TrEMBL record:
Provenance organism: Funneliformis caledonium
SUPFAM superfamilies, per database record: Activating enzymes of the ubiquitin-like proteins
One of the protein's GO biological processes: protein sumoylation
Source species taxonomy: Eukaryota, Fungi, Fungi incertae sedis, Mucoromycota, Glomeromycotina
Entry GO CC: cytoplasm; SUMO activating enzyme complex
Ranges of residues in domain THIF-type NAD/FAD binding fold: 31-284
GO molecular function, one term: SUMO activating enzyme activity
This protein's name: 5354_t:CDS:1
Gene3D superfamilies given in the database record: NAD(P)-binding Rossmann-like Domain (3.40.50.720)
InterPro entries with a match to the protein in the record: ThiF/MoeB/HesA (IPR045886), ThiF_NAD_FAD-bd (IPR000594), Ubiquitin-activating_enz (IPR035985)
Length: 289
């Protein structure tokens, strides 16, 4: 998302009155698949200054299930180009740009043009490679009482908040030091995500439901457990089969939930008024245990 001028017109103030009151004027100006559709929708409707959609892939039949920015007529077209016009129609005041090149081939200076980068459906190496660009400048609000006045004085303090890198978070190897009772509170889906990322890293693709891939998933599970010195009974063979069946699937309700949460966190970062989530957020959309 690119930076925009530091003023808005009266018409824009009226149009975005609710959003400005919610997270402030500064946030209002800063500025593809099913999940990315939802993120784009929420950010554009919120009125960010501009947004750039980067995708070198083409629309496939499978994409039609959970996406609302493309149609059957777009199959075979570049995803970014196919969805851009419909994104613009959501809010003509937002500048929507497209880039059909592979983000993995972009030079470092390319990312200096943006206030914030959001990756979806990316492989682990790409996420780790772009992680050094992930930092936030946060304005924390502190209220102090005014002498002889009922209302407190609001003091804004600029602070640079550095987050642990994704690579550092994934290198955690002291799980065996965590009490078993506390470890049980860690979602078993986390282990599934780590296994999927490792599979994708080694095979350069996501798994499918066949004997070879399930055997590979079991091997990665056993390696994960052994290397961390933990016992995770929830990573059952049945769970690994479910991973192979759902690794490529997208469900519209899940995309809506995750897209809304992620877009709100992006707005928190751009507004510099609230701290984004400083952790791994995992949503378990599987019904049942």
């Amino acid at each position: 998302m690119d930076s925009q001028p530091s003023h808005i017109t009266e018409d824009e103030a009226a149009l975005y009155d609710r959003q400005i009151r919610l997270w402030g004027l500064e946030a209002q100006q800063h500025g593809i698949r099913g999940l990315s559709n939802e993120i784009c929708k929420n950010l554009v409707l919120a009125g960010v200054g501009s947004i750039t959609i980067i995708d070198h892939n083409v629309v496939a039949i499978e994409d039609l299930g959970a996406q609302f920015l493309i149609t059957e007529q777009d199959v075979g077209k570049n995803r970014a180009l196919a969805s851009a016009d419909r994104v613009r129609h959501l809010n003509p005041r937002v500048v929507v740009k497209t880039d059909t090149n592979d983000i993995r081939e972009k030079p470092e200076e390319f990312f200096m043009n943006f206030d914030l980068i959001c990756l979806t459906d990316s492989d682990l190496d790409t996420m780790v490679g772009l992680d050094p660009w992930a930092f936030f400048i946060i304005i924390r609000v502190r209220k102090t009482p005014k002498p002889n006045k009922d209302e407190p004085e609001i003091e804004r303090i600029m602070k640079c908040e550095e987050y642990v890198s994704l690579e550092a978070a994934l290198s955690k190897n002291d799980w065996n030091q965590i009490p078993e009772k506390k470890l049980k509170k860690v979602s078993y889906v986390l282990w599934g995500v780590l296994i999927l990322w490792k599979f994708q890293q080694e095979e350069n693709r996501l798994p499918i439901n066949n004997e070879d891939d399930i055997r590979k998933l079991k091997s990665l599970r056993d390696s994960l457990i052994t290397s961390n010195g933990i016992k995770v009974s929830t990573i059952s063979d049945e769970f690994l089969v479910m991973l192979s069946l759902n690794a490529r699937a997208e469900l519209s309700p899940v995309c809506a939930i995750m897209g809304g949460l992620l877009a709100q966190d992006i707005l928190n970062a751009l507004s510099r008024r609230e701290l984004p989530i400083n952790n791994l957020f995992i949503y378990n959309g599987h019904v049942g245990k």
